């Protein structure tokens, strides 16, 4: 049965791969993001390739008024959202706490924590009306263990972990599933954004082992939505074979 899926941060990485996978499987997808040109390009591609309905909403999850306005603009046919994928998130900087950038801190907290809350606050009432729905929050192994210089990024992902658990409890009586997918290192734009566009530093992160891909994570997100109605994956931590946790990797010299 076709569902309506809303994905934040759909212009790259996990979000884009997830949008492609749901569209490929015949679902209607609401793609959101800050980069209007990428949104429109993806919308046209998915509609043309998979012959499905795609709605693009251009907004920044960090701006509560814009989030509210965007969700309020949804046509009635698009309001019955079955799955919300809170994917929008980022790391900015990799500095010790004493020399961290306030701008980096605010960007991470505003996107990873407040953005997730702003979007969820608008979508949850629509799910409660129907006593059904599935919220999938993208966490991280950084929300399970803190690593050197990860400080605020790790804190923001620990918040996602806690918010997911809180949502699961509060929405239990409404029949709404809540899942956290917590990936380790995946080769996307993540490291490039963290290092403020320095691709040499970003590429070094993934040398010496085979990291996960955006498609790997999209597959897990999709899988979690295919389970029987009485089953819910609460928390799924996933890494490549070469990664044990946020700290330990097995890398070769190649």
Features:
254 residues, 8 helices, 7-stranded parallel beta sheet, alpha/beta, Rossmann fold, 7 strands, single chain, 15% strand, 43% helix
Write up what this structure looks like:
The chain is an alpha/beta fold and 254 residues long. It has a single domain (4-238), classed as NAD(P)-binding Rossmann-like Domain (Rossmann fold, 3-Layer(aba) Sandwich). The chain has 8 helices and 7 strands. The chain has helices at 13-24, 36-50, 64-72, 102-130, 151-170, 190-194, 199-205, 214-224; strands at 4-7, 28-33, 54-58, 83-86, 133-138, 176-183, 235-238. Strands 3-2-1-4-5-6-7 form a 7-stranded parallel beta sheet, sandwiched between helices. Helix 1 (13-24) links the parallel strand 1 and strand 2. The protein is globular. The termini are far apart. The relative contact order is 0.14. The mean pLDDT is 97.
- Looking at the structure, the CATH topology is Rossmann fold
Shape: globular
Number of distinct beta strands: 7
Number of helices: 8
| CATH C-level class | Alpha Beta
Structural class: alpha/beta
- Strands across the major sheet, in which order? 3-2-1-4-5-6-7
Radius of gyration of CA atoms, rounded to a whole number? 18 Å
Q: What is the number of independent domains?
A: 1
């Amino acid at each position: 049965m076709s569902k309506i899926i809303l994905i934040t941060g759909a212009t790259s990485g996990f979000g884009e791969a997830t949008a492609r996978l749901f569209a490929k499987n015949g679902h209607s997808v609401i793609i959101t993001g800050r980069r209007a040109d990428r949104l429109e390009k993806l919308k046209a591609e998915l509609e043309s390739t998979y012959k499905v309905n795609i709605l693009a909403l251009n907004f920044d999850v960090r701006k509560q008024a814009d989030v509210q306005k965007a969700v309020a603009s949804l046509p009635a046919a698009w309001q019955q959202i079955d799955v919300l994928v809170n994917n929008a998130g980022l790391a900015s900087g990799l500095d010790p706490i004493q020399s961290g950038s306030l701008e980096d801190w605010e960007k991470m907290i505003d996107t990873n924590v407040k953005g997730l809350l702003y979007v969820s606050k608008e979508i949850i009432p629509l799910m409660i009306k129907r006593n059904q729905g599935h919220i999938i929050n993208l966490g991280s192994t950084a929300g399970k263990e803190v690593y050197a210089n990860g400080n605020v990024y790790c804190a923001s992902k620990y918040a996602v972990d806690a918010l997911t658990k809180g949502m699961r409890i509060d929405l239990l009586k409404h029949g709404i599933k809540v899942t956290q997918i917590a990936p380790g290192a995946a080769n996307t734009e993540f490291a490039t954004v963290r290092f403020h566009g320095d691709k040499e530093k970003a590429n070094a992160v993934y040398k010496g082992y085979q990291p996960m891909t955006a498609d790997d994570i999209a597959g897990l997100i999709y899988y979690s939505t295919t389970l029987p109605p009485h089953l819910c994956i609460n928390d799924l931590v996933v890494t490549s074979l070469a990664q044990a946790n946020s700290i330990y990797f097995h890398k070769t010299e190649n």
